[in-house]
Amino acid sequence: MRHFSKDRPQASHGEDGCEALLFETLDRIRAISARVGQSMATVSLAWLLHQPGVTAVLAGSRKPQHIIQNAQAADLELPPEVVAELSAATGELKRALGPNQDMYLTAAESRIY
């Protein structure tokens, strides 16, 4: 993934990656989620559902209880200041990754349909 260094085994991109920034972003999300009293997954899905124009979120699961947790995100009302804080917490990483939608290939190799 472009989030990680090109020097990691099995990396298929040639970019430096954003490892340090990724882990800082995750720490920010973890802290916000702890304050809200919910898991990072639940808060992250709820944040997505609070975004203008987002009407559905695709979420995977490995265990049946993950499906229940994912569904609970739809009922989680995040205060506007928490939504704004989560957006700010993720903004720098989104800017660093740029408009390339492909998490695995470099910009020159990305495919936009």
Radius of gyration over all CA atoms, rounded = 16 Å
What fraction, in percent, of the residue positions are helical? 40-55%
Q: Any low-confidence stretches, pLDDT <50, length ≥5?
A: none
Decide which structural class fits the backbone: mainly alpha
Q: H/E series, N to C?
A: HHHH
Shape: globular
Q: Summarize model confidence as the mean pLDDT.
A: 82
| Oligomeric organization of the protein chains | single chain
Tell me about the largest β-sheet: none
Structure description:
- 50% of the residues lie in helices and 0% in strands.
- It has 113 residues and is mainly α.
- It has a domain at 19-97.
- α1 (19-36) crosses α2.
- The longest helix is centred in the N-terminal third of the chain and has 18 residues, at 19-36.
- The two termini are 20 Å apart.
Q: Can you summarize this structure?
A:
The protein has 113 residues and is an all-alpha fold. It has helices at residues 19-36, 40-49, 64-73, 80-97. It has 4 helices and no strands.
Break the fold down into its secondary structure elements and pairings.
Elements: H1 19-36, H2 40-49, H3 64-73, H4 80-97
Helix pairs in contact: 1-2, 1-4, 2-3
Salient structural properties:
single chain, mainly alpha
